[in-house]
Amino acid sequence: MSLLARTRLPSPLLNATAHARLLGQQGRRGLASAAPDRRVKIVDVSPRDGLQNERGGMVATATKIELIRRLQDEAGVRCIEAGAFVSPKWVPQMGDTPDVLAGMPTRAGVTYPFLVPNAKGLETLLRLQGDMEAAGTAKKTDEIAIFTAASEGFCRANTNCSIDESLDRLAGVASKAAEAGLRVRGYVSVVAHCPYEGRVDPRRAADVSRKLLEMGCYEVSLGDTVGAASPSEMLAVLNECTRFARPEQLAAHCHDTMGSGLSNVLAMVKAGVRTVDSAVGGLGGCPYSPGATGNIDTESVVYALQREGYETGVDLEAAAKIGQWINEALGKANGSSAGRAILARLAMAQTKGKGEGNDQRESRL
Ligand SMILES: CC(C)(COP(=O)([O-])OP(=O)([O-])OC[C@H]1O[C@@H](n2cnc3c(N)ncnc32)[C@H](O)[C@@H]1OP(=O)([O-])[O-])[C@@H](O)C(=O)NCCC(=O)NCCSC(=O)C[C@@](C)(O)CC(=O)[O-]
Q1: Quick check: 297 and 278 in contact, CB under 8 A?
Q2: Beta carbon of 19 within 6 Å of any ligand 1 atom
Q3: How far is the CA of 192 from the centre of ligand 1 (A)?
Q4: Beta carbons of 100 and 64 less than 8 angstroms apart
Q5: How far is Cα 234 from Cα 193, in angstroms, rounded to an integer?
């Protein structure tokens, strides 16, 4: 019997109580119980990609740390992109990353990649971790993420250099990181569409991805940065990449501007990708893409993957609560329609539960 057939999936016809209970059960089922080829790793990027473009004032460091804590302790996320050692002149919202690193709680089995654009970013991270170890505190992370782009226009706008210059810079960062015992994840932005150059040739995106793998990245995340790609466009990039990489060495990083984020994720997972980047509450945006909305939300990714018979190990109900909480903390509407629906069903189930309790009391009286 297939896992899909064995998995009880929430039906829209179930009442709210049953639906909420079922979602909870599914969310709590561990990754270990799933067949290896049905496991999908969620990289929740909300503390970095989700918050880096927040325009409504600096998000409090304590809020960022609480977001990381809740993602790991309550939602069971096993990979959390926690911050960025980039220039605060370019991305002020990430300026407190050293404080986030110092203050964040860590948990065994969870990885915390930090974005690093250049040698200076890596030196800062290594120095801070060295200071922590000297003070008797265990280091917080053993992973960084480096990033470049598939178009010259985006690369220059994002990192002030050409693609070749960025690759030169990143090769040095990757080799120093490896010497220091850090794993390196890679990103290629605008793999299908660029806000400056339009449609991007999938071979171009694949060529840059290959170079990141060759410099030692264990995985390359393919970014539909502006959220404009269709599934076939993302699959075209994936097909080019699988000429030299296994699908498991690639990740889906989809934004949802045009509403195709989830379709793109599902298409890539069905094609063999086993790592998906997402952000609770659909947090995020892209400063270089007018009207760009956030990352695809963790809640809809986890829900859709569950329905398709995949396991993420993420507690859906907890993710929905965290997505609601962080959006409220930012004074924003919850950007996850799946999250809103899950919370509405939970609220209805609770009300019904209370009502049933009252009815029983009344009937006993
Ligand atoms: C790459 C640079 C630094 C080049 O920026 P630059 O201005 O060319 O760099 P520079 O070397 O001339 O330095 C300028 C100033 O920045 C400082 N500086 C330089 N480096 C650092 C550093 N690491 N940490 C802290 N400070 C730094 C440096 O010390 C100097 O300070 P000053 O002397 O003027 O006081 C800059 O362009 C930058 O930080 N860019 C990052 C932009 C960014 O973070 N974008 C968002 C992340 S990428 C993304 O979101 C896409 C992704 C990953 O999610 C995937 C997807 O969706 O596609």
Answers
A1: yes
A2: no
A3: 23
A4: yes
A5: 10
Catalytic center residues: 286
Q: Give the CATH fold of the 41-348 domain.
A: TIM Barrel (3.20.20)
**347 Cα to the center of ligand 1, angstroms:** 43
Whether residue 236 is predicted with pLDDT greater than 70 in this model: the reply is: yes
ipTM of the complex: 0.98
Q: What is the pLDDT of residues 29-73, one digit of tens each?
A: 456 666 778 999 999 999 999 999 998 889 999 999 999 999 999
- Enclosing H/E stretch for 145: strand 143-149
Task: State phi, psi for 87 to the nearest 5 degrees.
Answer: -70, 125
Determine the atom of ligand 1 nearest the C-alpha atom of 116: 23
Q: Note the pLDDT of residue 32.
A: 62
| Residue 217 backbone dihedrals phi, psi, to 5 degrees | -65, 135
**Site to substitute for ligand 1 among 43, 45, 48, 86, most atoms within 8 A of C-beta:** 86
pLDDT: is 359 or 157 the higher one?
157
Give the CA angle between residues 231, 200, 232 to the nearest 5°: 15
Using pLDDT thresholds of 50, 70 and 90, give the confidence band for residue 357.
low
| Closest ligand 1 atom to 158 CA | 42
Q: Letter for the amino acid at 141?
A: T
- Residue 200 burial by Cβ neighbours in a 10 Å radius (0-12, 13-18, 19+): buried
Q: Which range among 24-33, 100-109, 156-165 shows the weakest confidence by mean pLDDT?
A: 24-33
The percentage of residues in the chain with a pLDDT greater than 90, rounded to a whole number, is 82
Which residue's CA is minimally distant from atom 12 of ligand 1? 160
